[in-house]
Amino acid sequence: MSIIYHETSKTFHLYNDSVSYIMTILQNGHLGQLYFGKHIRDKEDFSYLLETCGRPMSSYVYENDRTFSLEHIRQEYPVFGTTDYRQPAVEILQENGSRISDFQYQSHAVSKGKPKLNGLPATYVESEEEAETLCITLKDKVSGICVKLFYSIFAKGGILARSVQFCNEGNALVRLSRAMSLCLDLPDCDYEWQQLSGCWARECHIHKRNLAPGIQSIGSMRGNSSHEQNPFLVLKRRNTDERRGEAIGFSFVYSGNFRIQAEVDAHETLRVLAGLEPDTFEWKLDCGESFQTPEAVMVYTDQGLNHMSQTFHKLYQKRLARGYWRDRARPILNNNWEATYFDFTEERLLTIARKAKDCGVELFVLDDGWFGARSNDRAGLGDWVANRERLPQGIAGLADKMEALGLKFGLWFEPEMVNKDSDFYREHPDWILSTPNRQVSHGRYQYVLDFSRAEVVDAIYEQMSRILREAKISYIKWDMNRSITECYSKALPPERQGEVYHRYILGVYDLYDRLTREFPEVLFESCASGGGRFDPGMLYYAPQAWASDDSDAVERLKIQYGTSMCYPISSIGSHVSVVPNHQVFRNTPLHTRANVACFGTFGYELDLNKLTEEELAEVKDQIAFMKKYREVLQFGTFYRLKSPFEGNETVWMAVSEDQKTALVGWYRVLNVVNASYTRVRLEGLHPEYCYQNLQTGICHYGDELLHVGLITSDETAGEASGDSKPCTDFESRIYVLEAKER
Ligand code: DGJ
Fold first, then answer.
1. Which one, 131, 429, 465, 649, has least CB within 10 Å?
2. Are 121 and 181 spatial neighbours (Cβ–Cβ below 8 Å)?
3. What SS3 class is residue 495?
4. Ligand 1 atom 1: the closest Cα is on which residue?
5. Which of 305, 211, 301 is nearest to 261 (CA)?
6. Does the structure show a pLDDT above 90 at 719?
7. How many whole angstroms from 422 Cα to the centroid of ligand 1?
8. What is the largest CA-CA distance in the chain?
């Protein structure tokens, strides 16, 4: 990996074995983008890549020069209104009402490693050799605003992490009204756009379209990164598939309002912007103050979508997630939510826990309803003290009982919310986000605490940390069950109200930071009514996230397949739940529910006492299987082989780092009568290893499985044959392949 500056051609070249990123200082001092793509050899001068032409009816920067028009030049951090009419990366409202700025190159510095982003989640390095960072300083002389553009290139993989810092070195305050983290101008628009969209219980569905002239965008103005659009975009060439071809993934490391957009101009060039949603953001920057944007990560590959995802997985698993649980296989848990909802007593919980322990479960999680006056969703949020009618010895007493059973104990919180029917709200009615003299909207009868205020965060921290100190708690599920409305903080002056959405998220990060520091061995799982905040920002604090409230195995195929585009399997919270399923009322076989959930963190969301003896035996086997293979399932290299969005069958697989163990998950939604033969070509195996298929006992060399494929034909389709159990709808199998000693 290298970052090189060629003085004579004023060109920067960041590269490693996979990728090159080339920029130049333009004749007006702005920064121009020359190339981003597969690694090319370095040389002194790439100026031929700067195409400027005199297009008719343009505006030009210099008199007597009809070639230099910013709207026809690819740039790094463009501004609006000085010959570029595309959407800008930055906009600054100045004292005189002007929004024009002119950011010219001042200096640059290259450093080893990667600097931290103060108060914000970001990818990191563990040694200076893992990355290099280029910081380019630009300055607008009239306003005195300095912009520092940070580019970190990692030693391995086509990864570039970017962020921007603003410093007001001028004499007057300004207002930042747009401060994107990333701009990438590309020379053509011949890409297919792929986004992860959905809604509650239907998160991360893959949607594709070809880029078209104009602006296409995804984003959130809900205060959370949202179920509706994940902060992740792929631009891929039309012939790119999972196994081959070029793609660029854009991921925004943030949990609040965002926008990722692509603008195709009249000449078919493309501008990608990613950052804080400008429509809900404004930041007052006083003299001497600075502002740091969140990080945006770009991954380039020429080896297909699986390779792009694997690059993200590894980065986010090892260099975004942190702490004790980062590299550890995740405990198999039993969560009581779908088993009891609000209707439980301590004895009922212990009855569920005993059976769970008997089956091999390691962690019992007590979900919503254990605190204050919380017997339904209308009361109690904000009062993080145990309800003694339900839990006579409090949380500490219950945790002790769980430990005595041989189980770890976990607890649900929703720290950012209050019900009006709570002591916390009665004491601090002005601590919710609400606009003066206007009605305040609720979501699930709850109101959003003003986490932009340090005293509010402090008060919640006090309550949560007290419980964590008193009780043996090994896991926290941090929920967030509504989006923000009437986003106004009574603690900030009128001219700072545009800062509230971002300050709110900074408050959430601050609370996470304090708790994860003080309780480093507690496993945090983030949640926002399922996947409403499944984003890289959260993964920095909580290495796993509840992917969806929809726990139906068929629905989960699409949700988990889509989620895996960016996020590692070790982060995908997935459980076996009861049938008929509580969201779609579908009956799926127990083994299929487990076969889907095991490509995730794995657990049970039901009362195992309600299962038959036969089913319990199956559950015990599932848990034993998961314990044996969870390292591979959660931390192995993951490949998508057949998409649930394209047909009746889904296939995916995980391969251990040493390539000696592979698990292939095969799922078929509807049964097929008189079915065709099916097979699937596997990935990631060692061509020379001899793998035994533990289902069939047959041995195959890796090259057979890679090139001929694994036969998945269903011998029972059509009619029940002999002893074999007939398949039904929602059938699935896990094929275990183990390499024998050579
Ligand atoms: C929404 C979560 O996604 C569920 O798993 C559960 O924790 C409920 N909230 C509890 O209110």
1. 429
2. no
3. helix
4. 529
5. 211
6. no
7. 19
8. 88
574 lines ligand 1 (CB under 6 A): no
CB 389 within 8 A of CB 372: no
412 C-beta closer than 6 A to ligand 1:
yes
> Ligand 1 atom 5: the closest Cα is on which residue?
549
Q: Which residues of 154-170 are buried (b: 16+ CB within 10 A; e: fewer)?
A: bbebbbbbbbbbbbbeb
- Tell me the three-class secondary structure of 578-641, residue by residue: CCCCCCCCCCCCHHHHHHHHCCCCCEEECCHHHCCHHHHHHHHHHHHHHHHHHHHHHHCEEEEE
**DSSP-assigned letter for residue 388:** T
Contacts 24+ apart (CB under 8 A), 56-60: 58/83, 59/83
Which of 342, 479, 482, 605 has the most ligand 1 atoms within 8 A of CB, as the residue to mutate?
479
Nearest atom within ligand 1 for CA of residue 377: 11
CA distance 221 to 302: 33
Q: What is the pLDDT of residues 606-634, one digit of tens each?
A: 999 999 999 999 999 999 999 999 999 99
Give CA–CA dist 667/670, Å, rounded.
Answer: 9
Asked if residue 33 lies in contact with residue 78, where contact means CB atoms within 8 angstroms, the answer is no
- What pTM did the predictor assign? 0.98
Known catalytic residues?
Answer: 479, 549
State yes or no: pLDDT of 741 exceeds 90.
no
Report the percentage of the chain scoring pLDDT > 90.
Answer: 96
Distance from residue 529's CA to the centre of ligand 1 (Å): 6
Instruction: Answer whether residue 720 shows pLDDT above 80.
Output: no
| 270-276/174-186 β-pairing | antiparallel
User: Tens of pLDDT along 364-374?
Assistant: 999 999 999 99
Ligand 1 proximity of 603 Cβ (cutoff 6 Å): no
Please determine, for residue 594, whether its predicted confidence score (pLDDT) is greater than 90. yes
For 59, 226, 262, the CA distances from 88, given in Å and listed in that order, are 16, 24, 12
Query: Is 742's pLDDT higher than 60?
Result: no
User: Strands 710-711 and 603-605: what pairing?
Assistant: unpaired
The answer to whether the CB of 554 falls within 8 A of the CB of 588 is: yes
Report phi then psi at 21, rounded to 5: -135, 120
Q: Please give the C-alpha separations between residue 53 and each of 29, 31, 59, 82, 553, in angstroms, as whole numbers.
A: 18, 18, 12, 17, 56
Kind and range of the H or E run holding 275: strand 270-276
How far is residue 319's CA from residue 303's CA, in Å, rounded to a whole number? 22
Question: Is the distance from the beta carbon of residue 549 to the nearest atom of ligand 1 less than 6 Å?
Answer: yes
Q: What is the pLDDT of residue 716?
A: 66
Distance of CA 141 to the CA centre of its chain: 38
Instruction: Tell which one of 368, 371, 445 to mutate to probe ligand 1, the residue whose CB is within 8 A of the most ligand atoms.
Output: 368
Residue type, 334: N
Local structure of 496: helix, strand or coil? helix
Q: Is 479 in the pocket of ligand 1 (CB under 6 A)?
A: yes
Dist. CA 543–CA 268, nearest whole Å: 40
Token pair 């078919």: residue: 268
Closest CA to 106 of 31, 36, 56: 31
- Asked if residue 254 has its Cβ within 6 Å of ligand 1, the reply is no
* Atom 10 of ligand 1: nearest residue by CA position: 368
Ligand 1 pocket, 481 CB below 6 A?
Answer: yes
Helix, strand or coil for residue 387?
coil
pLDDT of residue 569: 98
Ligand 1 centroid to Cα of residue 603, in Å, is 15
- Residue whose structure tokens are 């106004």: 488
Q: What is the mean pLDDT of the chain?
A: 97
Rounded alpha-carbon distances, angstroms, from residue 155 to 16, 19, 400, 524, 703: 6, 10, 47, 29, 30
Cα separation of 124 and 118, whole Å?
12
